[in-house]
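Support reply, case 0932

Customer input (verbatim):
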Amino acid sequence: MADQQNHDADVKQLHSMGYAQELSRRMGLFQNFAISFSIICILAGGVTAFPLSLSAAGGASLGIGWPIASLFALLVAAALGQIASAYPTAGGIYHWASILGNRGFGWAAAWLNLLGLMFVVSSVNFGLYLLVKDLMMPGVFHIDTSGWTWWTQTIFITVVTIIQAIINHRGIKLTTLLTDFSGYLIFVVTIILIVALIAFSPVAMDLGKLFVFTDYTGDAGGGVWPTPASDRWLGAIFPAAIAALILGWLQGVYTITGFDASGHTSEETRNAAREVPKGMIHSVFWSAVFGYIMVCSFVLAMPSVEEGAKQGWLSFPWMMDQSLMPGVLKDVLIIGIVVANFLCALAGLTSCSRMLFAFSRDGGVPWFSSALRKVSKEHRTPANAIWASATRPEFTWTQSWRQGDLLIWDNRCAMHRRDAFDPSTRRLMHRTQVKGDTPFFRPAR
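Our regenerated output:
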């Protein structure tokens, strides 16, 4: 009875904002929490982006830098959660920006959020490829991957993304089952990894490592940050070690992101006005806490922070190789990390597709809105938006991040059509209160 009342209240609130209930509301608090927790995935950014911190200011980047980055992420989550409680729609950030700001803010937020979500899916799958290539294949299966080429990378990422799209297409029930599993998996693997690294550390525990400022930018850090901190504009303002610490924040802010997924799945969450903010804030808080303990254990388990930083992008595999933990345990943990990264990108694709669906429902995607807003009658998922989210970004990868090259991102998402919504042309987007399928945004006549 209570569930039905909550469902009726959810539908009524959605109708009051001009939308019909098209998606299936199968998610509860834990499912909403799990999808954001899975996208944050401390076993993804906490592992693959670990060199960004270690090769910046050494142990201090983790011991001091991670809590600072986490605090800012938690402030953002609290603000977004407050807004999500008032406007629980799949549009999320761009919808809120339009209501609280203006049409221009809404348009900009929509494209930035959409392109950012597409990039998250691809970047996590790229990190998954590196984990398979540099950690799982040689470390677990003893397969030489030195001959893997750009084509191997491209085929791997393509196949993985297609699998994630198929899972999303088949329905939110299957997706939530996997993201629920991901939430438990992240907790379990993280806890076991922390305990194993400390228990089987080759050196005695020295907490002082976490608060030592050392500038490892440049060659000292394996070229992760090719330009030394002292030669950057930050180096002209702060001492080199402090400038390096600021660079190291990138790991934390990169890892603890994507929690707007709780908002993007509002229309699939029961009692959304209450549960969505809880899911969002809890996902950030627990990621920050467990992530901090985990990255600190990485530093504490290193025989030498200096030697670890010299490994550059291979500092995590090197750290695992130095650990004295049993081989079977090490293999299980590595496989768990790889699976968690796959599920992280899966959840990212879910969030991205819902945002694209909502934006298309509002008529915001030139030429393709009518197709991308369609919902599968069989699975009650935004099928076209899912496949567009999986295939539309066109990424050109240079040799590799570990060689210091930039990721070239070429996305042709009709950005040149901004003139359709440019205030200078007076073709603005405005809100409607009409129930049903009327777009939230439409060009003013």
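We compared this against your earlier run and they match. Two observations from our side: Residues 103-139 form the longest helix (37 residues). The radius of gyration is 22 Å. Please reopen the case if you see a mismatch on your end.
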